[in-house]
Amino acid sequence: MKVEYVGPFVDGAINVLTTLLGKTPERGKLSARPQLFTSQQVNVVCGVAGVIEGQVIYGMSVQTADKVASGMIGQTIITFDALAASAIAELGNMISGHSVTALASAGFPCDITPPTIIRGNNVKISTMNVPALVIPIKIEGLGEIEITICLREKAARIAA
Amino acid sequence: MAKRILITDDALFMRVTLKKILTENGFEVVGEAQNGLEAVNMYKSLSPDIVTMDITMPEMDGLQALKEIRAIDPNANVIMCTAMGQKAMVVEAIQAGAKDFIVKPFQPDRVLEALNKAA
């Protein structure tokens, strides 16, 4: 897990959220995450595969998920239904897509897998043997999205 | 006569959003496919004027579906609409015959511009 992997995801999140919601988010402080942690109430898990592999998890409270989904759909949602869940999943997909595009340009070609949504209280996530870094992205009026980045380089790269 | 569009995306949110933009701007959405395999089968049965195609999907990804649709119909108009913007992917899609490549999130005008140019 390298700190260099974080930048593309932060930039991706800021760009995508600004385009979708019209507000520019702020990045918070980077910190390390233990291998077993209690997640947020709504999580989008995106797989990354290629020269870099692992998962990126976008976590937020139900209140933030409601507000973000409402912003994306264009009207206030009443319940967190299939459409709202799909909007949040697609948010994770778009941020991940932008981020791996930047990683590819930086010499780390990789791909993303379709996203998974996990919802609940006191859900524990384990990232197994790969330590994770977490960075909060704060959106004014909507709350915070935590990006948990759990990535490693697949094999030794051959020097060009 | 309204152009007939087949939308392909595994995300309900994207299908709903695209359908709204298209229908409000004079296009007819004749089908919604949830993955590349459905898109290929629906292409055969619906013969749409234009297909919008996501890339990252289960069952069959959009690049594979693009190639299969173009093999069925070398004149097929397929517009990629995806979160993946890597140069290699754009090149592969265009070389496989995609008419345009839109990166999500997109402005509605970008999609409409691409559709109006495609067919």
What does this molecule look like?
The complex is a heterodimer of chains A (160) and B (119). Chain A has 160 residues and is an alpha+beta fold. Chain A has one domain: CheC-like (Chemotaxis protein chec, 3-Layer(aba) Sandwich), CATH 3.40.1550.10. Chain A contains three helices and ten strands; from the N terminus they run αβββββααβββββ. Chain A starts with 5 loop residues before the first helix and ends in a 7-residue tail after the last strand. The mean pLDDT of chain A is 90. Chain B is α/β, with parallel strands linked by helices. Chain B has one domain (4-109): Response regulator (Rossmann fold, 3-Layer(aba) Sandwich), CATH 3.40.50.2300. In chain B, 46% of the residues lie in helices and 20% in strands. Chain B contains five helices and five strands. In chain B, helix 3 (62-72) links the parallel strand 3 (50-53) and strand 4 (78-82). In chain B, helix 2 (36-46) packs parallel to helix 3. The mean pLDDT of chain B is 95. Chains A and B meet through helix 1 and helix 3 of A and helix 1 of B.
Tell me the number of helical segments of chain A per DSSP (H or I, 4 or more residues long).
3
> At the first level of CATH, what is the class of chain A?
Alpha Beta
- Low-confidence parts of chain A lasting 5 or more residues at pLDDT below 50? none
Largest interface: A-B, 25 and 20 residues
Number of strands of chain B: 5
CATH level 1 class label of chain B: Alpha Beta
> Which percent band covers the strand fraction of chain A?
25-35%
Main sheet overview of chain B: 5 strands, parallel
* Level-2 CATH architecture of chain B: 3-Layer(aba) Sandwich
Radius of gyration of chain A: 15 Å
